[in-house]
Write a structure and sequence with these properties.
By secondary structure, the chain is α+β, with helices and mostly antiparallel strands. It has a domain of 57 residues. It is 25% helix and 11% strand. A hairpin with a 4-residue loop joins strand 2 and strand 3. The N and C termini lie far apart (82 Å).
Length: 127
């Protein structure tokens, strides 16, 4: 055999033995003994803000609907004729007259129209 092949073979054997020794030592070492836990960092690292860049404008807050846009439902669970749109606040959905689930919906609020309910952050029912 040539001398360079013997050296490469010897280096590979030494590297393999060193790796096996490191794995055995790492398996016996106590983990997280100081309570420190390491996590990987994202690459590339997050950009650092630089001065001189204009700050983005804050989005305009939607105007709150007037208090007369909605009312409490009647004690029997129906909406008054002036406020026919039924709304459930827990689900964030409103129902319009003639909709599939309008008759069985027990409203939390009753709105004048769909735009008032949408302005209050509710979405229309899918059916």
């Amino acid at each position: 055999m040539r001398r360079s092949v013997k050296r490469a073979l010897g280096a590979g054997i030494v590297g393999g033995v060193a790796f096996a020794a490191w794995r055995a030592w790492n398996a016996r070492a106590p983990h997280n003994e100081r309570g420190v836990e390491w996590t990987t960092a994202p690459f590339p690292f997050p950009p650092v803000p630089r001065p001189g860049a204009p700050a983005p404008a804050a989005p305009a807050e939607p105007a709150a609907p007037s208090p007369s846009a909605w009312t409490e439902p009647n004690p029997d669970g129906t909406c008054p004729p002036t406020h026919p749109v039924k709304a459930k606040l827990a689900s964030g959905i409103y129902h319009v007259p003639g909709g599939a689930n309008y008759a069985r919906t027990k409203p939390d609020r009753c709105y004048v129209d769909e735009t008032a309910a949408a302005a209050d952050g509710l979405r229309p029912s899918k059916v």
